[in-house]
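JOB MANIFEST
job_type = single_chain_structure
chain_count = 1
residues = 461
[input]
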Amino acid sequence: MRSILFVYLTLLLSMIDYGNVNADKKKVCIIGAGMSGLVSVKRLAEHSDEFEPIAFERNSDVGGFWIYTESTTVDEHGSPVHSSAYKNLRTNVPKELMAWPDYRNFSGDERSSVPHYLVLQYLRNYTAHFNLRRYIRFNVLVESVAPTRGPHRHWNETKWVLKTRDLSTREHDHTICNAIMVCNGHLTKEYVPVVPGVEKFQGKAIHSRLYRKPEDFANETVAILGASDSGLDIAVDLSSRARKIYLSSRHERLASKLPSNIEQVPGIIKVSGDEMIMSNGSSITADSILFCTGYAYDFPFLEDSCGIGVSRGHVFPLYKQMINAEHPSMAVIGLPTVASIYLLPYVQSQYFVALLRGKVRLPAHDEMIRDAYTLTPGAPEGKYHALGAHQWAYHAELAKAAGFQLPPSYYEDGLNAYQTYRDAHPATFRELRFLLSADGTFRLENTEPDARHVSAAAAPS
């Protein structure tokens, strides 16, 4: 339950005449200074005569997920650790395709698949290059967000109240603004499916968010539940130290070659002691269980009056996968899945800022609601935020509506070519180099000894 004091404050502020608040500029609050937050701040700063951006970041640095720490419990402020990055994490996308079009200087390693600390350094360099730190308040936690007035038909009159807490001084404060960009990331709240009997398992049973290094599982037999990106990556990382790894999935077996101590098995439906019963009736035994089962969307700071709900992985009602249909001066940036998490906020932030500048016209409320409950073409039932191959048409749709330039075509062509190779070689794809020329053509070069050369090219955009 939210504090009575904050409810009273919100009601009181709703009675204030806001005619003189931010008369010259719109104050826009950004929650988070990770990838999505940084590109959002930068986009607003490009129009500093129109906007006053203020970003709130709970950490002492930019980077969000990419701030690695060996702690899996609490940070220096006693708050839950935000990052789920692990020690040997390297990107599963080439750095050449992670660098944003407005800042291509992703340096520090000849390899294309780079360690997590180089991604963090890129984000720090991006922040310094565009002088963004002046807009960011570090070590500040957003505790509550609520609108004070303004139904959806008069959305540009809405004011927002943010209640914040300085994690260093413990002092509380509040900020009033005209618009909100929610950029808090979605790799913090663990999703763990119900597996009967797992609560009595005597070994380690943890979510992948708590995984840090393979040495913690040396000589063990480990059962990994989930064979998507994180499950597969961690299985390969573990293979250097674990005795045996069972990679359990409800889906079809991967056709690609894996390290010899990784065995693919069906989905685990029950645990009995140290034995795991699988969907085909067979069983395995393991010392530890790792749930690589993904994450749940979580917005603990949003009051009910914000109009945002979450049900079974569906955040609603979001027009165009980001605009709060009930209060369109709020956007959730970087939310869709099965998409480039680097380009997505780059494109979405441009659309939302164009909306705030009056360059985009919203449809009627009913149409926005229908859009929020319409599946993306080709998406599985219920997966409202899975873009997949449709992400490129989605980018084009936003760019056309808001009048901005799409990222160069080598992003789409390069990611498709790289993904094809990655799917076929999940244990070794990180040795592939992505060589991008100034004219937008590229080729893929395999750096493994005696490996076949892989080549592809994209037409300049």
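[summary]
The chain has a mean pLDDT of 91.
The CA atoms of residues 233 and 345 lie 24 Å apart.
exit_status = 0
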